[in-house]
Design brief:
The chain has 569 residues and is mainly beta. Helix content is 12%, strand content 43%.
Length: 569
């Protein structure tokens, strides 16, 4: 309470959802060009943080002594975004066409937003509406969604926000399932192909820290095509989130979340009419931290760890923001001789020390022994790593090139106890390809004018033999263990591949409202494994592999077209 009492600056903290990719792309581009310094390993950014970075860009641009100039398109983008985040600057946005305007309120049809600014309260209300039509030789799918979002900023430090989307689509196939190897957002379907997505929270913030109870999607780890640490692909889940920035060289991010296990607890149930039993899901929690250090300007070094645990209730030890959770787990469980919880370790390096160039690497470590790094070690560590680079506005203005490689070893993200997997609602929290997989992603981007983006991209993804995490058992009359599983060659038999080349055009008409046109040529294949079956392997036929990993709509060789328009995501 003393900490709260000393805050004297306006610092409302409303997360800007990670789906609003254009503002993230713009800040990333300007950070590459040297206008701002940015920790891009942690998303979402708060809207106030975005507004401050936009102001920093404007200040740097106006300072001619720094010899940094925005190109024409960047100037238009900056002007546009400064107006869209006007409430964060404590004034109303300017709308060319409005239906109502006073000193406190501005309402407009295009964009369909109501903005309010009073002495102690500011608010923004906007509808959510969209439709995408996706079609190829197999099927046509029409995806529709509608809803609304609200953002409120009270006094100097308190903010509250919420949104609801009701989503449905036609067609006989679902594009998103926990086993599908694609980057579609994860959903928990209610009836048929219908689902809803509700996000929101309440946060208290000042210039040095923010804390809140939120239900949202978060992404940890630098990437341009799905993080291998926390990707944000799984359905949003409730969490207590803490961010602390006590000095320019250090930042702490921490959360404690309530995951959805999708595992029934046979000891926990409701009784209906004294006879019918309704089992309840088992508890599942996560605690994670990421500490980011800046030893020199534009070099960000991040290290963190997490634990997924499934006790009867939350444990206070895991509410400690700066802790090594595996050590805490050993103290809490080893003396009892029981199975411990599932812990992980993260590393991320991001450098923008060469102007126009962003190079990065991230590592997700599920389990590690130093001896396993030796070339002659038969068993390998279950880890995932990503390396990549983005070159922006070098020689050619408005052009950028991205290349990214991801590799995940066997059993990474998995656990022998189903309630302890790195997943929520059965969706992997990390990279969409899961374990024993690799991906090469490359893209060329061109932004000729404000709001208009062209992207040519290439994806080459492969998945090897599928394994279950079995700690110990018997195979062919011999004792076997998980060590035998991770001693198999990484990838091994390639049983699934996806080679896709696509061209995507988006035009942001106004904030988070897009017209979209996309064409993809995809070749998704599956294969029979040719090696001898081994312990822990889930051996499938080629067709079983295809059905498990790919919606029928996209199986085989296809040219797929997508057109659509949306207000919000």
């Amino acid at each position: 309470m003393l900490f709260f009492g000393f805050s004297v600056v306006v610092a409302q903290d409303i997360p800007n959802h990670i789906s609003y990719h254009r503002i993230y792309d713009f800040l990333d581009e300007l950070a590459n060009d040297g206008f701002i310094e940015l920790n891009s390993a942690v998303k979402p950014y708060s809207q106030l943080f975005i507004a401050e970075k936009l102001q920093d860009i404007a200040n740097t641009y106006s300072d001619r002594t720094k010899n940094k100039q925005l190109c024409k398109r960047q100037k238009k983008e900056l002007e546009y975004f400064l107006n869209e985040y006007a409430l964060e600057f404590n004034h109303l946005p300017q709308r060319p066409i409005h239906i109502h305007h006073t000193n406190q309120t501005v309402s407009s049809i295009l964009p369909p937003v109501i903005s309010y600014k009073g002495e102690y309260f500011k608010a923004r209300i906007a509808p959510i509406l969209g439709m995408h039509i996706t079609s190829n030789g197999n099927e046509k799918i029409i995806k529709r969604w509608y809803g609304a979002e609200f953002q409120g900023m009270m006094g100097k430090n308190l903010s509250i926000y919420g949104s609801l989307r009701d989503i449905s689509h036609t067609g006989d196939d679902l594009l998103s399932k926990p086993t599908y190897l694609n980057n579609e957002p994860g959903y928990e379907y209610t009836v048929g192909s219908d689902f809803s997505d509700s996000r929101g929270g309440i946060k208290y913030a000042n210039k040095k820290f923010s804390i809140g109870l939120i239900k949202d999607n978060i992404s940890w780890g630098d990437n341009y095509h799905c993080s291998n640490i926390l990707s944000g692909r799984a359905p949003s889940f409730p969490m207590i989130y803490l961010q602390v920035k006590p000095a320019g060289w250090f930042e702490l991010n921490y959360f404690h979340g309530w995951l959805v296990s999708n595992v029934l607890d046979s000891t926990y149930y409701y009784l209906e009419n004294d006879s019918e039993i309704h089992y309840r899901p088992a508890n599942k929690f996560i605690a994670a931290n990421l500490l980011t250090f800046t030893p020199v300007k534009n070099l960000k070094l991040s290290v963190g760890n997490s634990i997924v645990y499934a006790e009867r209730n939350v444990h206070p030890a895991y509410f400690i923001p700066i802790a090594f959770y595996k050590s805490l787990d050993h103290v809490l469980t080893k003396g009892l001789g029981v199975e411990n919880q599932n812990s992980q370790l993260f590393l991320n390096i991001s450098s923008r020390n060469i102007r126009h160039l962003h190079v990065f690497a991230s590592v997700f470590i599920d389990e590690m022994q130093l001896r396993r790094f030796k070339p002659d070690s038969p068993d390998k560590n279950p880890i995932s790593y990503k390396v990549g680079a983005n070159l922006s506005n070098f020689l050619l203005k408005n052009f950028s090139a991205v290349v990214e490689y991801t590799k995940s070893n066997i059993l990474n993200y998995k656990h022998s106890i189903s309630t302890l997997t790195w997943a929520s609602n059965s969706y992997n929290l990390g990279h969409y390809l899961g374990d024993n997989a690799q991906e090469l992603y490359a893209a060329l981007r061109f932004k000729p004018i404000r709001g208009l983006d062209f992207q040519l991209y290439y994806v080459n993804a492969k998945h090897g033999n599928e394994y279950e995490y079995i700690r110990r058992g018997v195979f062919n009359g011999e004792k076997a263990s998980v060590i035998d599983i991770i001693s198999n060659p990484s990838l091994g038999d390639v049983i699934w591949t996806n080679e896709t080349i696509g061209f995507n055009t988006t035009y942001e008409i106004f904030r988070n409202a897009y017209a979209v046109a996309k064409v993809e040529k995809s070749d998704i294949r599956s294969f029979d494994a040719i090696s001898i079956p081994v312990f822990g392997e889930n051996r499938m036929t080629a067709q079983e592999v295809m059905n498990r990993f790919t919606p029928q709509f996209l199986q085989g060789n296809n040219i797929t077209f997508t057109v659509g328009f949306s207000f919000g995501f």
